[in-house]
Amino acid sequence: MFDDAESDPKLLSDEADRIIPTLRTQLLKAQYQHLNKQDRALLILVGGIDGAGKGDTINLLNDWMDPRHIRTIAFGPANRSDKQYPPAYRFWQALPPKGQTGIVFGSGYAPLISEAVKKRPDTRKLEDMVLMARRFEADLVANGVQVIKLWFHLSRKAQSERTSRLLENPSTAWKVSPLDKKVHKRFSRLRDAGQRIIEATDSAHSPWIIIPAADENMRNVRTGQAVLQALRRQSIRVPALHDPAELPKLRPSINPLTKLDYTVSIPKDEYDEQMLLWLNRLAEAVRHPKFVKHHSLVLAFEGQDAAGKGGNIRRLTRAMDARQYKITPISAPRQFELNRPHLWRFWREVPAKGKIAIFDRSWYGRVLVERVENLTPKVSWRRGYTEINAFEQQLVNHGAIVLKFWLAITEDEQLKRFKEREKSPFKQFKITADDWRNREKWKEYYRAAGDMLSFTHTDLAPWHVLSSNDKRYARVQVVKRVTQAIENAIKSHD
């Protein structure tokens, strides 16, 4: 795999002088065509042997191309603030929009490489990290992000000589990190780890390209050619995992909504008593040191129009410090959000440990309104189930308590509430033409909700399907279940 790179091929200066002006012109032209077309983003992940000139090459790309449309992203070791969020959080924040190019220095593979290079790597952990990387890249490509990965490599001798040469000159010595100085001592192990990672994560939709890095001219030209080829691709290849022909058929299931008892209710005096009890317990739970240190809370509210999502959220927050929670109402995505993968705008709202994120409607719009209204191709909303499950699993793996509530009402109850809203001066703002139009597609939304509840109910992030025909009953159940989930999480640390 590394034979060519470790032979340290050179490109004569005369030849480089002939190639580079044309290459630079072609790169700029392709970059602007990519910018104007805006059909995808280009993400370049840069990795390889330390001391192979990765930083210099990234600077060169910013010089050869228009840097205004390039986002250079460098991830160092996670600091205390970073560790408050899932590992993928930083990466999602940095994704470039369609038309632009992102260059990730360190490639996002640093934790994987760190594990693989150990004398006794944790095989299970390594496999999980590889699967996560493959899945993440496949999801990005399927959602309009072209991914190429550049691995800079050279021989042990060339790496050692380059490091010594840089150290001799005070103006370049700063480029040599402590890791660069140690590479020659453990070169074989780094080489083997690199090969193992490349073989495990190389794919047609996000390929690794090995760049010979000993000779500056060769390194620069090969890098420029790889980026040019990526920019010139007419379309990005959809991963087999997401190809319509490869997707499994949705399994038949019984719609959970058919089993719901819409007659459940609670008397007002009992409601007042129960609500006070659970709100007091919730107030104590969200302030508990073990919750603040180890957990965050993610609440997603879905349901038919007028089912009481806003009312339930308002009751919950009575037990919370306004500095601890954030309510995010979800509506149709804006253009800058459409220019990035579907889940990008939700990753932006992921809470840090000790914080609470409340979503009034959520990422489930992909498999509800976008499906019913034909706003998204079938293949996109079908793969939405697995993408959403993977997203929620990452949150839970980092300590988030994820609870999803479907508030259900009958058609008759919805009609009654719609009419009440039209008559009330305090509620008229809640009823829109879209609400009436959505009502005409009751059966389609009912079917879509049933599939969603079946395919995305997991032990880690369960759905709580509640009848909301009686608002008091639903409100007590929501506060009770949120409180119990936090209390159970706290007890797990005893």
UniProtKB/TrEMBL annotation:
Pfam family for this entry, one: PPK2
Superkingdom of the organism of origin: Bacteria
GO MF annotation, one: polyphosphate:AMP phosphotransferase activity
Alphabetical UniProt keywords: Transferase
SUPFAM superfamilies named among the record's database cross-references: P-loop containing nucleoside triphosphate hydrolases (SSF52540)
Domain Polyphosphate kinase-2-related: 15-235, 268-491
Name of the protein described by the UniProt record: Polyphosphate:AMP phosphotransferase
Species: Orrella marina
